[in-house]
Design goal:
Layout: H1 6-15, E1 20-24, H2 30-39, E2 43-47, H3 51-58, H4 69-77, E3 81-83, E4 94-97, H5 112-121, E5 129-133, H6 141-151, E6 161-165, E7 184-188, H7 191-202, E8 208-211, H8 214-245, H9 249-256, H10 281-290, H11 296-306, H12 308-322, E9 331-335, H13 350-360, E10 364-368, H14 392-396, E11 400-403, H15 412-418, E12 422-424, E13 436-438
Parallel strand pairs: 1-2, 1-4, 2-3, 4-5, 5-6, 7-8, 9-10, 9-11, 11-12, 12-13
Antiparallel strand pairs: 6-7
The structure holds nicotinamide-adenine-dinucleotide (NAD).
Nicotinamide-adenine-dinucleotide binds near residues 30, 49, 50, 98 and 168.
């Protein structure tokens, strides 16, 4: 009788989709992933510490606009269940970790969710399983934090348990790409680990890109996000320069973008938002310091981008004063408070910082965002506000309307026709107008 190597057996299971794939952390990343795994034909299990989410999923409901209830129901019809019970992970062939990786109060990496997850998983790990970390993190996390913990259970990496890092590239609201069609990078702790990872992801994702190590995979994800953060910082700085010179930065970008090679357009805005771009670069900054390297581009871009809400508010104050008004006591309507258009995600939204600045200076605030009907509970911010409908009368009653997030559902013609003053941070009004100030 020939005994098959554990990797070969696992690879066969993944290729045949005859495997149980478990995803831990059913948020913006984990939920679409587990649904995709179910669609691809795997048996699936979702694990989360949030009992409310688990109950919703088990009732066939959703809590994410990006994953409609029909998708959850479709996955359930294929056997998907959710649980808070880590003991059920023992039955899994693949365990994919998609938990948060925020910054702590000192803006340093907070790996407590990842480590907490691994500690909860350890008692249930067994030989013959693949563990994949997808949470964005600094190079070295998989080898320094996951590997020794798994080995402490007496399990050998690359022989008993297969360990990979495969970063997520979710883009909420983007209808052009799906979990299946976004190419996925995968790096393994050993060649056998990589082979197992490629077999799993290859069975569900159209293109899987192998790299030589988990550290390369970890850093590739950070490079992607740092690339965005730095280029947005650059264009935000250019916006300030152009504004002083009386030049429209958006017209400049449109002109430059006609160059068919060597130029990639990035657009200025009211500040960075979301869970990735404002946070991830600082994972690298922190780790680079351990190697005696200062990541100056990252710090500088962070500084420029962080100054944007203040800059936008200054433009608003100037625009009011040109109309012989002061901000204190003025009625200001904030249009769009989600961090980017057409979604309901408020994480790190620059609108919140802008609202804080406006409130501190005495503005009478209201907001409208069809995706965020009530200002949500946030750790550091509280506004007792609900979204107001945008009507001609509402617009006309304002001293200023500030367009922060340019959702497609807004009626831009109506807004331009009735708002006495619009501060446009998104170039929704490219040709301008007597009541429009670009910021
Ligand atoms: N949102 C994005 O667009 C995006 C894109 C690429 C990468 N990422 C990365 O993916 C990771 C997850 O992000 P997200 O946006 O899905 O976060 P999220 O907050 O939407 O979801 C995380 C989920 O993990 C659960 N959780 C937390 N601790 C847990 C634990 N110990 N055990 C089990 N479940 C736990 C939470 O209850 C939550 O449901 C992060 O590292 C993030 O940087 C996010």
């Amino acid at each position: 009788m020939t005994v098959r190597a554990p990797t070969a057996a696992l690879i066969d299971k993944f290729r045949a989709r005859d495997a149980l794939v478990a995803v831990i952390g059913l948020g913006y990343v984990g939920l679409p992933l587990v649904v995709r795994m179910a669609e691809a034909g795997f048996r699936t299990l979702g694990v989360d510490i949030d009992a409310e989410k688990v109950a919703k999923l088990d009732a066939g409901q959703t809590y994410l606009k990006t994953v409609p209830a029909a998708k959850v129901a479709g996955a359930r019809a294929k056997g998907f269940t959710a649980t808070t019970d880590f003991a059920r992970l023992r039955a899994a062939d693949a365990i994919v970790i998609c938990v948060p990786t925020p910054l702590d109060a000192a803006r340093q990496p907070d790996l407590s969710f990842v480590i907490g997850t691994v500690e909860s998983l350890l008692p249930h790990l067994r030989a013959g399983q693949l563990v994949s970390l997808e949470s964005t993190t600094y190079p070295g996390t998989t080898e320094e934090e996951l590997r020794p913990r798994i080995e402490s259970r007496g399990l050998r990496i690359g022989e008993d348990v297969f360990l990979v890092f495969s970063p997520e590239r979710e883009d909420p609201g983007n209808e052009r790409y799906t979990t299946r069609t976004i190419p996925k990078i995968c790096g393994g702790s050993t060649p056998a680990c990589l082979a197992a990872g490629l077999a799993l992801y290859g069975a569900a994702i159209d293109t899987v890109v192998p790299v030589s190590s988990t550290r390369v995979a970890e850093m590739a994800k950070l490079l992607e996000n740092i690339h965005r953060a730095v280029n947005i910082g650059l264009v935000n700085e250019m916006k300030i320069v152009a504004d002083r010179m009386g030049i429209d930065i958006h017209e400049v970008i449109r002109a430059a973008a006609t160059k068919p090679f060597g130029f990639v357009p990035y657009y200025p805005g009211p500040g960075l938002g979301g869970h990735c771009i404002p946070i991830d670069p600082f994972y690298l900054t922190w780790k680079a310091r351990q190697y005696g390297v200062d990541t100056r581009f990252i710090e500088l871009a962070g500084e420029v981008n962080a100054a944007m809400p203040e800059w936008v508010v200054t433009k608003l104050v100037d625009a009011l004063s040109q109309r012989a008004k002061m901000l204190r006591g003025s009625r200001v309507l904030v249009l769009g408070i989600a961090y980017k258009k057409n979604i309901d995600d408020m994480r790190e939204s620059p609108a919140v910082e802008i609202m804080e600045l406006l409130r501190a200076r005495g503005a009478e605030l209201s907001y409208s965002d069809p995706h965020v009907p009530k200002f949500p509970k946030m750790r550091a911010h509280a506004f007792d506000l609900e979204s107001v409908p945008v009507t001609a009368a509402m617009l006309a009653s304002q001293d200023c309307v500030i367009l922060v997030t340019d959702h497609d559902v807004f009626d831009y013609g109506l807004i331009a026709a009735h708002a006495p003053l619009i501060v446009d941070t998104r170039d929704r009004y490219p040709t301008g107008g007597s009541n429009i100030v670009k910021a």
